C-alpha cells in the first residue's frame, strides 16, 4: 500500500515504515502522500516535527494507541457470509453486550461461544459496545482515540471479523456502538495533524464539524462509519450521544451520514441501520429526509426507561421524580418531556412525536442498558433491588409494546453481577484523576465516596463479568424461560410488534396497566393483587407470569404479575396463524 495523511498545518511530513523514514509529498487540500512500500503487517507512523505518531485512520494498533500503526489488509480475511442479506430493524429484538465482560475470556472468540444462547433467546440484533482502540486493556470503550482500529486485547480486526461472521452464520445482525462526539483523554493526537478539534464537552475534546477545515473532519467521521459497515460487514451503528455533536451547518453531519449510508446499503444490497442515542427528545432525528428529518433509523428512548424504572423500583431521586406515575403517558407518546417542563433540566424540553406518522419501531425500549446500570454508583442492576416477579412485569411491557425491545446482557436471567464503571489508564496521574473525579461526582449525588468502586482496580472489571453458571440456577432459570416465551409470543402474534402508535392504547388504574394490542390485552400489575376489568370477554390467556383465571370481562391478577389475554371475537391475523401452524 501507499501512504496518505491529512496534515494541513505542517510544511514537512515523513512516514516511518519498519523503522525507516521516507519523505512525503504535499498534495491538494493539505494531504500528504508517499509511495513507500507498505506490505501487510508492516509497522508505520507519520513523523511530525520529529515525533512519530499513529495514523489517524489506522486499522490496527497491536501495541496500543501511543505506538506505531500496522498495515492491515482487508482482502486477506476469508468471509463465509456471502449469503447474508441482512436484517431490517422493524421487528427486531436487540441485545446489548460488552465484549470484555460478556464472558470471562473477554474476547471476540470467547463471545462467539455464547452466541447460541442469544439465538435460543430469540435475539435478532447484537449491539456491541465500542471496540475501537483506547488506552489500557480494560474499559467501556467510550474513551477511544483511534476509531478505525479494533481494540487488540479483544482480538484485533480479524477477531472482530470472526465475531461478525459467526453472528451472520446464526442469523444475527451486528450493530456497533461508535463514538463521534469526543475523544478519550489519552492518545488523542488528531489535533497534531490538523484542525480536528473545536471546543469540548463533559467527556473530552469535540470535533470541528462546521469551522475552517471541517470538510475533512466530517469526511473522517463518515468514512469511519462506512468502513465498519462495508469492510467489517457490520449491519448498523449505534451513534453515541449525538446531542453533543455541535454542527451549525445547513446539512447536519447526521443527515449527511444517513444519506451516504443509504447509498452504501443500496450498493451492498442489504439494510443498514443508524440508531442514535440522543437527549434532545426530538423525533426529527428519525424522521425521513423526504419529510425534513435527518433520516436515521431509530433512537434510544430514555424517557420510556425512566418511567418503567420508577414504576418498578419506586426510586424518585435524580431525574426520576418527573416520571413518577407517568408510565402510561410516556408509553402513549414516547417522550414524557415533549415541549413540557423538565424539572431536572430546569426548562421546557423536547417536542411531541407525531404518532400518526412516526412508527414505534424507531424508538428503542429497555429496562436496563449500560448507561442506566453502569452510571449508578455501585453499578447495581434492577435485579439487586426489584423482585423477579416485578422484573417479569417490566419485561412484559417492553416486549408487548410497539417499540423495538432491547435487552442488556445478563438481564434475561437477572444476573447477580453488577456492571460497574472501569478503566485501565497506564498513566498514574490520569488514573488518579479519573478515580477521584468519579468519587466526587457520586458524592455530589448523595452516595458516600467510599461506596464507589475504584474504576482502576482490575477487580472492578472482573466483578462486572457475567457468570454463565447462573443461567441454569433456580431463580435465574425461570426468568430466562419467561423472556424466551415473551419474545416468542411477540414473534408469533403480530399484534404485539405492530409499530403503529396511533393504534396503541394504554390504560392505567393505580398499579395496573393494560396495553391494547389489537385483539390482545396485556394486563400488568405492579402492585398487590387486583381485579382488572377488560373491555371484552376474555377467551384465552396466552401467557402469564402467575396463575390467572379469567371470568368474563374480569381478570384476577395476583400481586406483581402480568397476563396476555385474547378477547372473544378477536382472531389471530393470517400472519399469526401461519406462524403458529
Automatic annotation (TrEMBL):
The record marks 371 as: Transition state stabilizer. Its main location: cytoplasm. GO terms for biological process: trehalose biosynthetic process. Substrate binds at residues 238-243, 302-306, 370-375. Pfam families: Alpha-amylase, DUF3459. Its EC number is 3.2.1.141. GO terms for molecular function: 4-alpha-D-(1->4)-alpha-D-glucanotrehalose trehalohydrolase activity. The active site is at residues 240, 277. NCBIfam families: trehalose_TreZ (TIGR02402). This is Malto-oligosyltrehalose trehalohydrolase.
Amino acid at each position: 500500500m501507499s501512504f496518505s495523511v491529512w496534515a494541513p498545518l505542517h510544511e514537512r511530513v515523513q512516514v516511518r515504515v519498519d523503522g525507516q523514514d521516507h519523505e512525503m509529498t504535499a498534495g491538494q487540500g493539505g494531504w500528504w502522500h508517499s509511495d513507500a512500500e507498505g506490505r501487510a503487517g508492516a509497522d508505520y507512523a507519520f513523523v511530525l516535527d520529529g515525533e512519530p505518531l499513529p495514523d489517524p485512520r489506522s486499522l490496527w494498533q497491536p501495541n496500543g494507541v501511543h505506538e506505531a500503526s500496522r498495515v492491515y489488509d482487508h482482502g486477506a480475511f476469508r468471509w463465509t457470509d456471502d449469503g447474508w442479506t441482512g436484517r431490517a430493524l422493524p421487528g427486531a429484538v436487540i441485545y446489548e453486550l460488552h465484549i470484555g465482560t460478556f464472558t470471562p475470556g473477554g474476547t471476540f472468540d470467547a463471545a462467539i461461544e455464547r452466541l447460541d444462547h442469544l439465538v435460543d433467546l430469540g435475539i435478532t440484533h447484537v449491539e456491541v459496545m465500542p471496540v475501537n482502540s483506547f488506552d489500557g486493556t480494560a474499559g467501556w470503550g467510550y474513551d477511544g482515540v483511534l476509531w478505525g482500529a479494533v481494540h487488540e486485547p479483544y482480538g484485533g480486526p480479524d477477531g472482530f471479523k470472526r465475531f461478525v461472521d459467526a453472528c451472520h452464520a446464526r442469523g444475527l445482525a451486528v450493530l456497533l456502538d461508535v463514538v463521534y462526539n469526543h475523544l478519550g483523554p489519552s492518545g488523542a493526537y488528531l489535533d497534531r495533524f490538523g484542525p480536528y478539534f473545536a471546543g469540548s464537552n463533559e467527556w473530552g475534546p469535540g470535533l470541528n464539524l462546521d469551522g475552517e477545515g471541517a470538510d475533512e473532519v466530517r469526511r473522517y467521521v463518515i468514512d469511519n462509519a462506512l468502513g465498519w459497515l462495508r469492510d467489517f460487514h457490520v449491519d448498523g451503528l449505534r451513534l453515541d450521544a449525538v446531542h453533543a455533536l455541535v454542527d451549525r451547518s445547513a446539512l447536519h453531519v447526521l443527515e449527511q451520514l444517513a444519506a451516504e449510508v443509504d447509498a452504501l446499503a443500496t450498493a451492498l444490497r442489504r439494510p443498514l441501520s443508524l440508531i442514535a442515542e440522543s437527549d434532545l427528545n426530538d423525533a426529527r432525528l428519525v424522521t425521513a429526509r423526504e419529510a425534513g428529518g435527518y433520516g436515521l433509523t431509530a433512537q434510544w428512548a430514555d424517557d420510556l426507561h425512566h418511567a418503567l424504572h420508577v414504576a418498578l423500583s419506586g426510586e424518585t431521586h435524580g431525574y426520576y421524580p418527573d416520571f413518577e406515575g407517568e408510565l402510561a403517558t410516556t408509553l402513549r407518546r414516547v417522550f414524557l418531556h415533549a415541549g413540557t417542563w423538565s424539572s431536572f433540566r430546569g426548562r421546557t424540553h423536547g417536542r411531541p412525536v407525531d404518532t400518526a406518522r412516526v412508527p414505534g419501531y424507531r424508538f428503542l425500549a429497555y429496562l436496563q442498558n449500560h448507561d442506566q446500570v453502569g452510571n449508578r454508583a455501585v453499578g447495581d442492576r434492577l435485579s439487586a433491588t426489584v423482585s423477579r416477579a416485578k422484573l417479569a412485569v417490566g419485561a412484559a411491557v417492553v416486549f408487548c409494546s410497539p417499540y423495538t425491545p432491547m435487552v442488556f446482557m445478563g438481564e434475561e436471567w437477572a444476573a447477580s453481577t453488577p456492571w460497574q464503571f472501569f478503566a485501565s489508564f497506564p498513566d498514574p496521574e490520569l488514573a488518579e484523576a479519573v478515580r477521584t473525579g468519579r468519587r466526587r461526582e457520586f458524592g455530589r449525588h448523595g452516595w458516600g465516596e467510599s461506596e464507589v468502586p475504584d474504576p482502576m482496580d482490575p477487580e472492578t472489571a472482573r466483578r462486572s463479568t457475567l457468570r454463565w453458571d447462573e443461567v441454569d440456577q433456580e431463580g435465574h432459570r425461570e426468568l430466562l424461560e419467561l423472556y424466551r416465551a415473551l419474545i416468542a409470543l411477540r414473534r408469533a402474534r403480530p399484534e404485539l410488534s405492530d409499530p403503529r402508535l396511533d393504534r396503541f392504547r394504554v390504560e392505567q388504574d393505580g398499579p395496573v396497566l393494560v396495553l391494547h394490542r389489537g385483539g390482545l390485552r396485556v394486563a400488568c400489575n405492579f402492585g398487590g393483587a387486583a381485579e382488572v376489568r377488560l373491555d371484552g370477554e376474555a377467551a384465552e390467556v396466552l401467557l402469564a407470569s402467575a396463575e390467572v383465571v379469567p371470568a368474563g370481562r374480569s381478570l384476577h391478577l395476583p400481586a406483581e404479575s402480568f397476563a396476555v389475554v385474547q378477547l372473544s371475537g378477536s382472531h389471530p391475523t393470517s400472519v399469526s396463524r401461519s406462524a403458529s401452524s
